[in-house]
User: Fold these one by one.
Assistant:
Number 1:
Amino acid sequence: MSIEIESDKRAQHLLQTIFGYEQFRDQQETVVSHLINGEDALVLMPTGGGKSLCYQIPALVRDGVGIVVSPLIALMQDQVDALRQNGVNAAYLNSTLSLDEVREVEQALYNGDLQILYVAPERLMIPRTLEMLSQLPIALFAIDEAHCVSQWGHDFRPEYIKLSVLHERFPQVPRIALTATADAPTRKEIVERLGLQQARQFISSFDRPNIQYRVSESSGNARERLLRFIRNEYDGEAGIVYCLSRKRVDEIAKWLSSKGLTALPYHAGLPAQERQNNQKRFLREEGVVMVATIAFGMGIDKPDVRFVAHLNLPKSLEAYYQETGRAGRDSQPATAWMVYGLQDVITLRQMQANTDAPEEIKRIESHKLDAMLGFCELTRCRRQALLEYFGEQQPEPCGNCDTCLQPPETWDASVAAQKALSCVYRSGQRFGVGYLTDVLLGKEIDRIQQFGHDKLSTFGIGKELNQTQWKDLYRQLIAHGLLAVDMEGHGGLKLTEASRPVLRGEQTLMLRKLTKAAAGKSKERQSSRYNNKVDDALWQALRKRRQELSDEQGIPAYMIFHDATMMEMVANRPQTLQQMSNISGVGESKREAYGEAFLEVIAEYPDSGGEEPSDSAEETLQLYRIGMSAEKIAEQRSLKLTTIYSHLAKAIAEGQAELSEVVCLDDTELQAIRFTIEQEESKRLKPVYEALDAAYSYEILRCVKADMYKEG
Ligand code: ADP
Ligand code: ZN
């Protein structure tokens, strides 16, 4: 056996025994094997994509200690704790350690006891550290958050530029740079500044399929809508609520708390101690809602943040993607929820116009804001639009955003827009939305009479719409750039070049219809994860046990087990330690430490028989039986197509569905697939998939295999 195959096997083995995962995800396997072979890599993967394993496993396979450079000092402790939970010997070096603690880590390094060392860049660069490392066997250098070398990004760290030294001083040691920043200019900068011209680039899709994108208009009732959203869909779960100002953060946190939620504020104006404390509670306790300005979030890698809510519009789609990306790192369903209204649009336009930035920058920022506003007013799939903005094409609408789930109605607003624009023009291009609306509605108000605007041809010509509808129309006109907001900050509106064709009736304008607040109810998720009592009780009991164990050790609950791992326990009800190790996320170390404790809990809640329609696979099968296609079921249930096929495969294996109904293959194809599956001894489908030159999807292969090994 060649060395390469042997070390790939070892990587696979470590994945299962240390981390408790069955399979590598997408690119992980190739990256890992590339690094094990001693080559350099640049990895671009979205948040939650699984970057850590890309360097942790090679660090364990290769001789010597793996050095991980990270700018996020506050999180090193957590990263190290998480590794130790899995039985890995890890430590960190940064300015928070005492001299004695530093000595202890150094001693462990010299003794060859450490497998992974996290180090802050400024600490790595001091001669003492470099000198020490040059005397030790080094497995690899991982440069996390590699976009910090970019001088144009907001996370720029000067020390990161010096990291190019690593290449010169340790030419034999492979380096891997990782980032979740997608854009090409940053990528180019990373390559140049870190001397990674020879490195192979691994670029993943930046889609976050488990995040459901939702945007809706607010008409002054944002916080009530937020509360209802949390209560209805994520009661007792963790989430982040972003607000623009510190004042609003304090106010919303207080209000949510008064309604019985655990909501904590976070912004730069709070005393450092309180801020830290709140962050800690958010990480360690279950179900904390963090109400924050954008000062919060960089490097927060809590995997089970179930929602990110925006009560104000972010200033660009880049910011929106990054902020919403903090939801659902564990790949479980999560929601990016946003309300925005007329005032948001006006405020952002004004803020932008009033900065002292050079014209060039202003222009770029203005484009970015336009893109953000355009995103809010979309009538097509939001995910497709978001990914397109980052240069990625997705051929099909996603089925997991509000516009896919509930296509917005549009209406021909050309005539109404003409009236609205004309009213702006005739009243002298200096009044705000409230006043303009009153004129359109023909209100007998002193102010209007003083200005003589009751004599205007637009006075009272808009009675077919009500006040809210006119406001909604004005918001969309501003968002689409047909009206500009005055610089002085009074909210006065002016026509723009773009408005002329509409005003002259040369352009049709299709706009979103205002959604009724009550609409969409039926599409909301259910708050509890299970609509079956026994499963729900077991889930709550597992959470409780997890919290007790994490309190004992003073570590975040998710470090014991992720939600996904516990959900698998609920679904499979393992009875023995052996069965426990088959659960994804249960490695050897955690099985020893916690296996018994969780088995005890599970034993108290025996399986109720799996008859309930709450059984996800059962529900799929029912829909399938009434004639829905797999695609349609995936859409309706907001599940991935892969999940639906795995349900169907299960049904095939249990003899409840026919292979020939589920997949469309002719006999020759079927034979070829069967033959290949038989040839491959390993349980995994990947070799089969590859042997067939990727001609058949994993979904198809899974179903064929299920048919071959079906019961009876
Ligand atoms: P990133 O650093 O890219 O944001 P992480 O490395 O933190 O992502 O991984 C995100 C989540 O996915 C973690 O909870 C991790 O345990 C999980 N994960 C990573 N790789 C796998 C895998 N091969 N199988 C199952 N879960 C995985
Ligand atoms: Zn969509």
Note: The chain has four domains: 2-203, 211-356+375-405, 410-514, 533-710.
Number 2:
Amino acid sequence: MHSKILTLMVAVTVLAGCKKVEQGGVGAVTTQEFGKTEKGEVVNLYTLRNRNGVEIAIINYGARVVTLKTPDARGRLADIALGFDSLKGYEGPNPYFGAIVGRYGNRIAKGKFTLDGKEYTLAKNNGENSLHGGLVGFDRVIWSGKTEESNGVQKAIFSYTSKDGEEGYPGTLNVTVTYSLGNNDDVQIDYHATTDKATVLNVTNHTYFNLAGQGNGDILNQVMQLNADRFTPVDAGLIPTGELKDVTGTPFDFRKPTVIGSRIGDKDEQLTLGKGYDHNYVLNRSGSGLVMAAKAVDPPSGRALEVWTTEPAVQFYTGNFLDGTVVGKNANNYAQRTGFCLETQHYPDSPNHPDFPTTVLKPGEEYKTTTVWKLRFVDPAK
Ligand code: BGC
């Protein structure tokens, strides 16, 4: 027993040591031009780097995460976020790589909802539904960006004012998203918003992760754990039916670490609807603080990601609609299931489901949510 503990301690020291020696480097926050939009607007790249070499870079077009570098157990860095080398890629057709999505992350059925007796009609961009904010959502607007640094924590802060009626949503909305990186290798994302008229809001980040490194094959052999006893089944248009279904005995049970691809071939109606996982998981929680939503590991490298959130749910999406037509960083074409998303959120279509936790924001209230990505590593598989 004693010697086992000793071996473990030595191993941990060696892992930590490798990381330090190979990464070195001093934390830094930098701002540089990333490119110009087709309309000629300058877009900047804000890079936060801690003393362990962990790096997150965000552009103020869509407040998108364009780089997320993190070491594995041997200290080797990889960029685990799918994306593009230049602004042109982000401006072109792509499924929300790295983006902040809003006003309403995920779908609102038939692009309609009623609030205080008034019906609102939204821009439809997903069959008959409205997805991720509509035609020009938060992912395709220019945010104002700035950086701050204090006590070893670096921040990139993005603000945007969404006009009353934008994409059909009521109220002038002031929204701020802050990405912070500390030397503990946690990326914290804080969302804040206020409105001058009652509206609905559900803002999240749509990064596609591949813990083996973007461009390094699919994510089917990576291991996922989700802290959820229930999920919200969907209809053919991926709109929740309203049921909160127990995951027990279904391919949706990720309460124990499970290989992502192990059940994707199952002929479960819910799985085939989304061509894989594309479902909202209801998080187990008591109270409203941060809870662990998900933990993912890439066994060969040991790279791991924990997602913690104040939100009630997480959309686990296995990149089912990626089809190799999008050419990303280093000319990698992103084929089906080469990245997964963990979008912390309120349930899809909540404005049309009075039983779901509310997404209404009223004047005088503050919208405040936090999600943390804990970038970690474990002993790699032998
Ligand atoms: C949705 C998917 C959609 C993807 C990209 C996810 O959040 O749940 O259905 O295809 O985003 O738009």
Note: DSSP finds three helices and 27 strands in the chain.
